[in-house]
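Hi all, a correction to my earlier message: I attached the wrong file for YCII-related domain-containing protein. Here's the right sequence:
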Amino acid sequence: MRNLLLLKCTKDTEGWWTEGEIYPARIVAGGFVLVGDDEELDGEGWSAAPMEYREDGPVLYKVGGVDGEVLFEEAAQ
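and the right structure:
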């Protein structure tokens, strides 16, 4: 199992990420990932849960604990 992956921000209503940008993430227990933001790119301050497993491959993740909506998808590697 790989521990690192790249996530592309597809939606951010909070202002911590830039839509369309790629962010490094680390896979943790239960399929969750830890991802940094524009302030701390390599940080792990945010937890995102898998919310959709697409048939064509990429998984969609949603950041929890925020009032708005923040979505990422696995970037092609």
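Sorry for the mix-up. The beta strands are 4-12, 22-27, 33-35, 46-53, 59-63, 70-74.
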